[in-house]
């Protein structure tokens, strides 16, 4: 493999600045000691991070988002694991159609889903409720969980399950003691990815969230539409920090390259 | 893996996969198909200011949309922004994927993370970064004025240029992923062979690398275009309330004007345009590059 020339490295440097600039600027502004948007040139301060605690709307939105992410990721995984096992371990008529259908929420613009859910939940009496939020988030995080659990279930040798069954294990026991431990890394990463997807979702949620059940990104979005100040930078910086922690967790569990590109360390890249 | 052999040993239709995927199918049926079909029906209803939604079935909302220049302007703007974002993402993302592919460990993994990691960060936070950079007292304008390149601040906020730049930043990881995946199939020996046969680096890039990266650029382009055309948060923050695109228009009809049937019609058009573009372009792409997808 040949090395990158100076022009390539210059392009690469500019790309890195472009990719990270907006993210770093948010984090920098969050540490300003001043009362308005400015870079922390004359010293760092945590005053705006402390100010988050004094804003009950952001705090309660954070807890809503956390509960919503955890609950919708868990429910999505419960539905995903059996479906993924069906796709990965059986060849049956309608298999391709099933995968396409289960991945279809990715093809629907989130705003369209938001509109569909707003009307649907209003009609069935779940408008503006936390349950409505959870149900809608289950749908949008399922494709992400499904992809990882299918990938994890595909390589399993069917002989292992046959061995368990021939040794007298019940179907449930062979799932619980043989299959599940083998696919657990995929299931865990699927859960984390589903959680992040739910935690970050804004476009669909902005349609169906009520003032009582607003998530953190929606709260942030509505706040930014009126007013941009160091407080939103601090909230964003805290969000970015949390995402980086989740990213490291995913890298450790699954490998980020494999997660994002579909191949990675285990198979040896390139 | 002999899944085919397992199936061959079981000639009768095995109910297991259907039972296993049943709950997920049922969930999708109730929570996805029903709301979408109901939205389609809602778009056929009409709306009056004092009576609310009226239970009739006609295409009046669609007729309104297609006969009003206001909507043409917004859909035209949405299309223009999506196209520019796609081109910009390709110009930025494709070369970067190629450069990443030529890097060695550990830089390669590290910078792949830098390029793709932002995907996991909330769109709102990333867009806020651009609002801070592009504002009239933002860093970009201060730098340009400090260098005496401009006298008065450039108006990026509330402009299509601002939306395009911020959206390209949000979506460029998809282009990098797609081109990266295409380049993984490229045998580096072919490049070396071309060089040893006397080809200049530029010729290698044009005649060897680009044709092989093209399926990746095009399929990345489809994803980028579809996501840009249905983007909401970034155009809403950078574009402000006046510079509307399709998704923010639907939002306004639903939550401000409260004309739900018209909002539903906009949503249905957005949905069909999206599916048409994704499925249609993928079909063309697969036909054109049949062997690359095999």
What is shown here, in short?
Chain A has 270 residues and is mainly α. In chain A, 74% of the residues lie in helices and 0% in strands.
Tally of contiguous helical segments of chain A: 12
Bulk shape of chain A: globular
Unreliable residue stretches of chain B: none
Major sheet description of chain B: 2 strands, antiparallel
Biggest protein-protein contact in the assembly: A-B, 95 and 99 residues
The CATH homologous superfamily name of chain B equals MetI-like
Helix content of chain A: over 70%
Order of helices and strands of chain B: HHEEHHHHHHHHHHH
**Largest sheet properties of chain A:** none
**Using only CA atoms, what is the Rg of chain B?**
24 Å
pLDDT averaged over residues of chain B: 85
CATH C-level class of chain A is Mainly Alpha
Distance between the termini of chain A: 11 Å
Mind telling me the CATH superfamily name of chain A? MetI-like
């Amino acid at each position: 493999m040949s090395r990158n020339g100076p022009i390539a490295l210059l392009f690469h440097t500019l790309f890195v600045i472009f990719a990270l600039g907006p993210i770093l600027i948010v984090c920098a502004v969050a540490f300003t000691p001043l009362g308005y948007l400015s870079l922390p040139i004359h010293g760092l301060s945590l005053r705006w991070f402390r100010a988050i605690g004094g804003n009950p709307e952001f705090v309660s939105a954070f807890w809503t988002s956390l509960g919503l992410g955890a609950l919708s990721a868990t429910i999505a995984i419960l539905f995903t694991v059996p479906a993924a096992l069906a796709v990965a371990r059986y060849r049956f008529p309608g298999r391709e159609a099933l995968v396409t259908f289960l991945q279809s929420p990715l093809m629907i613009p989130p705003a369209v889903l938001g509109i569909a859910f707003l009307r649907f939940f209003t009609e069935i009496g779940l408008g503006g409720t936390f349950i409505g939020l959870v149900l809608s988030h289950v749908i949008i995080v399922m494709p992400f969980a499904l992809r990882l659990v299918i990938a994890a279930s595909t390589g399993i040798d069917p002989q292992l399950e046959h061995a368990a069954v021939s040794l007298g294990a019940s179907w449930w026991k062979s799932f619980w003691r043989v299959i599940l431990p083998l696919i657990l890394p995929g299931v865990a990463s699927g859960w984390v990815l589903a959680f992040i997807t739910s935690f970050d979702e804004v476009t669909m949620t902005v349609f169906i969230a009520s003032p009582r059940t607003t998530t953190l990104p929606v709260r942030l979005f509505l706040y930014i539409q009126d007013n941009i100040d160091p407080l939103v930078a601090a909230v964003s910086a805290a969000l970015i920090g949390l995402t980086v922690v989740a990213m490291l967790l995913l890298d450790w569990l699954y490998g980020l390259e494999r997660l994002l590109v579909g191949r990675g360390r285990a198979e040896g890249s390139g | 893996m002999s899944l085919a052999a397992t199936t061959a040993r079981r000639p009768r239709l095995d109910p297991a996969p259907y039972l296993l995927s049943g709950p997920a199918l049922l969930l999708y049926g109730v929570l996805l198909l029903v709301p979408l079909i109901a939205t389609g029906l809602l778009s056929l209803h009409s709306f009056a200011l004092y009576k609310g939604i009226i239970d009739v079935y006609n295409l009046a909302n669609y007729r309104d949309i297609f006969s009003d220049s206001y909507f043409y302007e917004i859909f035209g703007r949405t299309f223009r922004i999506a196209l520019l974002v796609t081109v910009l993402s390709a110009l930025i993302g494709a070369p970067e994927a190629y450069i990443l592919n030529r890097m060695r460990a550990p830089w390669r993994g590290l910078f792949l993370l830098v390029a793709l990691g932002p995907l996991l960060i909330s769109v709102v936070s990333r867009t806020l970064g651009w609002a801070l950079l592009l504002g009239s007292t933002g860093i970009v304008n201060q730098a340009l004025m400090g260098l005496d390149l401009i006298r008065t601040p450039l108006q990026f906020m509330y402009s299509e240029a601002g939306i395009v730049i911020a959206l390209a930043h949000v979506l460029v990881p998809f282009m990098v992923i797609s081109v990266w995946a295409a380049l993984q199939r490229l045998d580096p020996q072919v490049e070396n062979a071309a060089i040893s046969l006397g080809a200049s680096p530029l010729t290698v890039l044009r005649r060897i690398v680009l044709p092989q990266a093209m399926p990746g650029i095009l399929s990345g382009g489809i994803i980028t275009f579809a996501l840009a055309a249905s983007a909401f948060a970034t155009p809403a923050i950078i574009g402000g309330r006046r510079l509307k695109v399709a998704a923010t228009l639907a939002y306004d009809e639903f939550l401000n004007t409260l004309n739900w049937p018209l909002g539903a019609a906009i949503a249905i058009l957005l949905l069909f345009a999206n599916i048409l573009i994704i499925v249609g372009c993928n079909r063309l792409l697969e036909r054109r590059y049949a062997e690359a997808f095999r």
